[in-house]
Amino acid sequence: MNQAQNSEPGTGNTFSSQASQASNPFTADLKGEFTSNFGTNANTNAVSQIFKDGGFVSQNRTKWIFIGVAVLAVLVIAFFLMTGEESTDEMAGEETTPAETTAAETPKAEETPAATEAAAPAEAAAPAPSTAKAPAAATGSVTLVGPSDGQSRKYDETTGAAEFSWEGAGSYIVFSRSSTMSPETMRVKVSGKSYKFHNPWPGEWYWRVDSADGGKSEVRRFSVEPPQRVNVTVSAPTSGGAIAGNGGAVSWQSDSSKVAFYRVELSTGNWANPQYRFATGTMSVSLQGVTPGSYQMRVGAFSEMSGRWEYTAPMPVTVQ
């Protein structure tokens, strides 16, 4: 058996075991005296001797009791937690809602004639009188008056605006170049029963009036013809003729009285910036300060009907 030899000088061969010694061996150690029968000549196992003599027992008994209780408490808590979750899962899986119980025990509605009759709409048996307003008519609450459908007029800035009229509460008058009214060329808010359209451009037009209640009138067509052109005929000089650069007379005739004024232009080819220009309110003009040479000449009339310049075809002249 293991025998521990005493290697410390000045001590006996063995530690004596005293019955009156304190049960806690570490208490004696604190006093400088550590006594036990460990390492005696009785050939006793050292570990057995320690437990036999009560070594470590008093010290560790309380500690091991607390450790054991703590371990047991942990195991019990873990057990209850695990069994509680399983019980909850089982209850959740086995629980049946009232709706499911009713569905399982009650026949389907379509299988019961009485249920089918009860599910029928109430208004099917006794329809309630309708109080909703009837939808607006397709043409709305506005009736167009003039111009009549397909009416035509010439473009003439001297005759005033084109007038459109209707009956009813009009809110907007709409103009378009398309019979479908899309896209809209112009939409104007109105408050009365007429509208004046100043100088609509030549071409086909379509119009309607939208009512205040959201309805739309019928669509009508009208057309605007191009303005009448002013015809100017040059009397002198003739095409290819000669004219004096100082005092030479240029004269012409016109078929319209709606001309604001005339002008005579001479150019070597650039009409955007002619070399010479003479304006007049009559139908003749005298040239002054024109350098001799070959030119192209034309006569222009500013038409009050079209609001633009209208020119004769250029003709060659020789200025002397």
Describe the protein in words.
By secondary structure, this protein is of the alpha+beta class. The protein has 6 helices and 17 strands. Strands 10, 12, 13, 15, 16 and 17 form a 6-stranded mixed sheet that branches. Strand 12 and strand 13 (276-280) form a beta hairpin.
Overview features:
single chain, 320 residues, 30% strand, alpha+beta, Immunoglobulin-like, six-stranded mixed β-sheet, elongated, disordered N terminus
Q: Could you give a quick summary of the protein structure above?
A:
This protein is α+β, with helices and mostly antiparallel strands.
**In terms of per-residue confidence, which ranges show pLDDT below 50 for 5 or more consecutive residues?**
1-58, 85-138
CATH domain topology of the domain at 232-319: Immunoglobulin-like
Indicate the overall shape: elongated
Helix vs. strand class: alpha+beta
Query: For the record, what is the CATH homologous superfamily label of the domain at 232-319?
Result: Immunoglobulins
Q: State the CATH architecture of the domain at 232-319.
A: Sandwich
List the helices and strands and how they pair.
Blueprint (H helix, E strand, L loop, with lengths): L24 H6 L15 H7 L4 H38 L3 H8 L7 H7 L2 H4 L17 E4 L4 E4 L7 E6 L2 E7 L7 E6 L4 E4 L5 E9 L8 E6 L6 E5 L5 E2 L5 E6 L4 E9 L8 E5 L3 E3 L6 E11 L4 E4 L3 E5 L1
